[in-house]
Each structure stands twice: as structure tokens, then as C-alpha cells.
Design goal:
The complex is a heterodimer of chains A (about 110) and B (about 110). Chain A has about 110 residues and is mainly beta. Chain A is built from no helices and twelve strands. Chain B is mainly β. The chains are: A mainly beta (about 110), B mainly beta (about 110). Chains A and B meet through strand 6 and strand 11 of A and strand 4, strand 5 and strand 9 of B.
Chain lengths: ~110, ~110
């Protein structure tokens, strides 16, 4: 079956530091890949997505590239802000129903 | 409404009781999903509706769990004979079709004591 594995948190960084959150996946076909973010007290929000190999998703300074050869979709940001503190979830969707398979989430804490 | 609305936001119930959780999707969204998120874990798929029918209910853990969407809009997740292991945040999401971005509600936190 499908699965998503992401690095465990919490990840604690100082403001303006570089961020990488690793995500790898297992899928039987050719999935679409997503990063969702959950800010404190809020619902899950789509951060970015990529639908095929070598695509790069980007939003709010975050980027992730769909790497089929390494089955990875690592999230990066060059300079984090305190407001980026949240839980980040990597996810995939393989079928037409858009059912999502999520990783376990990574909590990011950014200190001023 | 502006977003996906879930009620109640919190529900505490005794072991063995019956509960209903409600999801009001974004108007016009035909696809609706239920997920369950246990503490410290990612959401797990429960069931997917396209219109009034359950297109995929493979994630429902057992026959104590049931969901309906009789008019193709509001959905109710029903849990019978609740167990302490059912304690989790239950998330609902909707999308315009099955192939577009899903928008999530803030969830219902269910605690079974």
C-alpha cells in the first residue's frame, strides 16, 4: 500500500535559518505529492503540491521538488520566520478520489 | 459558508455511548472526506463521498463507524458503542470534484472517557 515517511520533530530553528524537512514515499503508481501546514488553532491548509516527476511546488517561500528516482519530496525554505512555526504534513494522492495518505507530521518551532 | 464547518468542536462522551459528528462542506463541493487524526500522528482516511454516495469507505475501522450524506451536502459521521481508542480529532474536507484541492475543517476533538 501507499505510505509517507517524514522526519520526526520537533525541529527548532532560529529566525532566518535554512529549513529542510525530509519526506519520502512509497506508492504503487504515480502519485501527486503535497505539503500541508497546520498553524496553531487552525485547520490543515494546502501549502504546495507537485503532480509529476521533476515538478517543483512553491508557495510563501517554501519549495519542494518531486524526485521520482529517490521517491522524495523534501520541503525547503531559505529563511524561516517565527510565523512559520506550525506542524507540516507531507501527503500523497494516487487515485481519482483524491484520498490523501499523510505522513506523521513534523513540528517546526522558530525562535526569534 | 466561507469554509468547511464541523460541529461540535469538542465532544466528550462516555465509553459505550453513541456520537454523531457533523460536517458542513463548502457550498457546491461535491466531494467530501472524513479523516481521523490521533495525537501526534497524521490524518488517516476514513471515507469519501461523491455526491450522496460513499465512493470509498475502505478506511472505516470497523462496523461501529458509519457516515451518511443524504442530500449531497452535510455529512454526519456516526460512531456506535464508543471506545477509548476512538478518541481523536475527526477531520472533514471537501473539494469541487475528486481531483481538486481539498479544504479542511478545524475538526471535532472526540474524547471517550
Amino acid at each position: 500500500g501507499n505510505s509517507v515517511t517524514q522526519m520526526e520533530g520537533p525541529v527548532t530553528l532560529s529566525e532566518e535559518a535554512f529549513l529542510t524537512i525530509n519526506c519520502t514515499y512509497t506508492a504503487t503508481g504515480y502519485p501527486s505529492l503535497f505539503w500541508y501546514v497546520q498553524y496553531p488553532g487552525e485547520g490543515l491548509q494546502l501549502l504546495l503540491k507537485a503532480t509529476k516527476a521533476d515538478d517543483k511546488g512553491s508557495n510563501k517561500g517554501f519549495e519542494a521538488t518531486y524526485r521520482k528516482e529517490t521517491t522524495s519530496f523534501h520541503l525547503e525554505k531559505g529563511s524561516v520566520q517565527v510565523s512559520d512555526s506550525a506542524v507540516y504534513f507531507c501527503a500523497l494522492s494516487e487515485d481519482a478520489g483524491n484520498m490523501l495518505t499523510f505522513g506523521g507530521g513534523t513540528r517546526l518551532m522558530v525562535k526569534p | 459558508g466561507a469554509g468547511v464547518s464541523q460541529t461540535p468542536s469538542n465532544k466528550v462522551t462516555e465509553k459505550g455511548k453513541y456520537v454523531e459528528l457533523r460536517c458542513d462542506p463548502i457550498s457546491g463541493h461535491t466531494a467530501l472526506y472524513w479523516y481521523r487524526q490521533s495525537l501526534g500522528q497524521g490524518p488517516e482516511f476514513l471515507i469519501y463521498f461523491q455526491g450522496t454516495g460513499a465512493a470509498d469507505d475502505s478506511g472505516l475501522p470497523n462496523d461501529r463507524f458509519f457516515a451518511v450524506r443524504p442530500e449531497g451536502s452535510v455529512s454526519t459521521l456516526k460512531i456506535q458503542r464508543t471506545e477509548r481508542g476512538d478518541s481523536a480529532v475527526y477531520l472533514c474536507a471537501s473539494s469541487t470534484t475528486g481531483n481538486t484541492e481539498a479544504f479542511f475543517g478545524q475538526g471535532t476533538r472526540l474524547t471517550v472517557v
